[in-house]
Amino acid sequence: xxxxxxxxxxxxxxxxxxxxxxxxxxxxxxxxxxxxxxxxxxxxxxxxxxxxxxxxxxxxxxxxxxxxxxxxxxxxxxxxxxxxxxxxxxxxxxxxxxxxxxxxxxxxxxxxxxxxxxxxxxxxxxxxxxxxxxxxxxxxxxxxxxxxxxxxxxxxxxxxxxxxxxxxxxxxxxxxxxxxxxxxxxxxxxxxxxxxxxxxxxxxxxxxxxxxxxxxxxxxxxxxxxxxxxxxxxxxxxxxxxxxxxxxxxxxxxxxxxxxxxxxxxxxxxxxxxxxxxxxxxxxxxxxxxxxxxxxxxxxxxxxxxxxxxxxxxxxxxxxxxxxxxxxxxxxxxxxxx
Length: 338
Description:
There is one protein chain. By secondary structure, the protein is an alpha/beta fold. The protein has 2 domains: 3-247, Aldolase class I (TIM Barrel); 257-331, Four Helix Bundle (Hemerythrin (Met), subunit A) (Up-down Bundle), CATH 1.20.120. It has helices at 3-8, 21-30, 43-48, 51-55, 73-86, 100-104, 115-128, 146-160, 179-182, 190-199, 214-218, 231-235, 243-247, 257-273, 278-282, 295-305, 314-331; strands spanning 10-12, 35-42, 64-69, 90-95, 133-138, 164-168, 205-208, 226-229. Strands 1-2-3-4-5-6-7-8 form an 8-stranded parallel barrel, surrounded by 4 helices. The longest helix is centred in the last third of the chain and has 18 residues, at 314-331. The protein is globular, with a radius of gyration of 20 Å.
């Protein structure tokens, strides 16, 4: 199995305001093999902004892919080369985001209407870097017929040499639905993505959208090369402890989320010394211990104390103590082993 096919077998979706570098280190603590994605970064930001802030990441995050937003082939090629020099493992082009900001910039889901332009963008990036270049898209936008739009896009991308395709199995409605509504209201069509893979069997392909558990995702691996989880992985990160044993057949790095928090603390301490706030890290941890007695106290302690000036890792230890004591009082053990 190629390195690309191995890493794309399970990935955590790029999510704006969520999958920043602190979130990715937390997720990497829970899975050694999941492919992690940055938030979308626009070509304009890379070419004219603070690249170290936008693109910097911890070596522990590998394998990690950067998702680019843009529609100008040359700007994307230049940005892709910059990202390659930063050490990323993959370049991904966003053709699925339906936000107003993305529409105003004429990229994201809008690009579903312009398969040849997307192909030109991929070809330009392929010529500029040695990394895999992939695309994440929807099955169509607005009144498009998915069997025409998605097949046209995939055909154009294969001609351009795209290395893999990730399909969010919903349409995006650019008029009438908010980005949040676009994540839930358009119906899912997994069968369509399965058929696409059957018709383009040589192209590595992963599916995204509505997958809530690792077990649900595994059902797709009979027909596809990978599964991508978004909100479920972020809001209930405990499930990531199942990724290595269930998806890759390898041991989980830690037995439970208590061990995960302990392993994450040195990173938190290091970033605090760099000038980050405790809240920058802990905001990604609220979903840990979901379903375990004491989880509410965990969330409450972090939410109220982590934003305070001068807060340190003692807040995490206090919050974790609530879960441990509550669980041990009820069950005699606080284990969350998978």
